[in-house]
Amino acid sequence: MTEALIQLIDVYKSFGEQHVLKGASLTIQKGEVTSIIGGSGGGKSVLLKHLVGLIQPDSGEILIEGKPIGSMSKKERKSLKRKFSYMFQGSALFDSMTVYENIALPLKEKTKMTSAMIKKKVDDKMQQLELQGNEHKYPSQLSGGMKKRVALARALVTEPEIVLFDEPTAGLDPVKKNAVHNMISDYQHKFGFTAVVVSHEIPDIFYISQSIAMLFEGKIWFQGKPEDIQKSSDPIIQNFINGLESSKHEMNGMATTKKTLQRYQEAMVHLERHEIAFSLIILTMNNLDELNEKLGFVVSQTVLKNFVSAVRKKIDITDSCSMYGLNKIMLVLSSTNLEQAREFCTKLSKEIRGNNIIDIQPYPGFCFTVSAGFAEAQKGSSFKEVLKKAESSQNIFHEFRVC
Amino acid sequence: MSQETNISYNPIAALGRMVIFPVQKMGSVAIFFFKSLILIFSYPFQISKIIQQVYFIGMKSLLVICLTGAFTGMVLGLQGYYTLSQFGSEGLLGAAVALTLIRELGPVLTAIMVIGRAGSAMAAEIGIMRISEQIDALETMDINPIRFLVSPRLAAAIISFPLLTAIFDTVGIFGGYLTGSGLLGINPGIYFSRVETSVLMQDVMGGFYKSIVFAIVVATICCFQGYHTHLQSEGFGAKGVSLSTTSAVVISSVMVLVVDYVLTTFLL
């Protein structure tokens, strides 16, 4: 059962003549990932800064666990601040401190831990985020992606209850973007914190969020589940989402979910008019989490990318391949019935075996499993129905061994 | 907008602004100073940060202070000798050089040299931290930025300024001796005995008090300017930092001279 952790009620904020927030109301549920989307310069970061008290609203109320921030005592505000962590858009790393000092700072300043305990904690976090060997480097010596990871490590090292991410993937390449999304989702599951993410990454952000809020003209135009915003017929929402959703997925040049849906509708027309069967296949990489944990997020995303490239080589130009979740790939195969879909999967499992999915030897005895579920579309059945059927018939069909 | 334009042409409103704005600014500088001062004594003490800042403000300014002190003393020796010789009182050179340095030039020139070397750096460093959201990051980590950034600098300035002033004075007196005795032939014994007899503890303490007040003025103004870089009305980003640094140097230099005058009237 989720409960409202943070509530913004009718918040107004202006900077001089510029009215940024004009009555924004938002609810953030405990233990969920809430993403705030909206146009550039639309006030998303300003909204986020209100949550942590960096900016005070001109009017309106911000309630944390039902209590207005304005009526809190100094002590209450202090203890509240300790529950929050904030990851800035530009990382905001202390440039005169090393990577280690940056990550250790909140522990050193705000806890009574001994230096040995701090070192252990920082080392653990650095290992989880693949930052080993960079302890003594300064932020100016790091790449953009690495800076983000250091900022993420600093934000998570205090084990906060609420983490606010201000465009965590801005300026990263597609593999690193997905790695950061995976990291957020993975840590959110692992540590159970409440996350608020400001992002432009549509549709990727939908995969990791339980709630999406769209900020438009200083107001929360929409708040709801990712599937609801995608289904919304509101032209403003549709224009915004379609404007940001590029026609190809950035990673591997895959089609977007929307394109796949279009492909599905076209195939359905062919089925209804010309009796040409088609099938839907869902490929799930089962142990992506294990890969994340053992090899790191960037490596696991590279594995996924290599796997997707191998799959794409096997499909026809009339077929469609798109990401369906963080570890799922959806294929719409035209002119393919259930038996042919099964054959396709068997062939795929044999042919991809031995391919260079991973360029490096991860650890002895490594293998990752891909489960494939497939379903043949019936006349008049909706995309959702076929998808559900494909997902429910999942069975492990092969283990790719890269040992 | 039109209302604002009207106000700016209203002479009474403009006069009001001219009075209110500096008073507000002085008030916020005073609050900033008291916060920083109180936070020096908050537990846990930031000893290592203060030592680092003493090294930066004090130790690294040593060479420039020695050079300035030596040449100031030397030029005072020259000027003093030619002026005193007109009255046949060259023997008083030691007293003239020592008193000028200890009472006035030592604290003032030390403060001005440190403003140029460390004050500008304080304003620029804190200013860059402000524009790159590092100060906001501290706030989100519940680390008081004034305690973390300003208090150690203020404490280090209060420790360093009197020591640097003492070094400036000593080197300056030897500089005066070099020109007075070495070049112009005054008896070294007379030079130093005049220094000894003329300089009272009251003069030394006066210089000491001045140097402490200057430390407070310089550290507070330079840190204040850097800390409020984002509020610079004439420029943002890198330009904002350059404006903060410039105004930190200009305002603190002028304030050192103004405060010097005020303190001298009380101390004399």
Model description:
Chain A has 14 helices and 15 strands. Chain A has about 400 residues and is of the alpha/beta class. In chain A, the strands form 3 sheets. Chain A has a 6-stranded mixed beta sheet with strand order 6-7-8-3-9-10, sandwiched between helices. In chain A, strand 4 and strand 5 (about 65-70) form a beta hairpin. In chain A, helix 3 packs across helix 4, helix 3 runs parallel beside helix 5 (about 145-155) and helix 11 crosses helix 12 (about 295-315). The model of chain A has no long low-confidence stretch (mean pLDDT about 80). Chain B has about 270 residues and is an all-alpha fold. Chain B is built from 10 helices and no strands. Chain B has helices spanning about 1-10, 10-40, 45-55, 60-85, 95-130, 135-140, 145-185, 190-200, 200-225, 235-265. In chain B, helix 2 packs across helix 7 (about 145-185), helix 4 runs antiparallel to helix 5 (about 95-130) and helix 4 (about 60-85) packs parallel to helix 7. The termini of chain B are far apart. Classes of the chains: A alpha/beta (about 400), B mainly alpha (about 270). The interface of A and B includes residues 82, 89 and 90 of A.
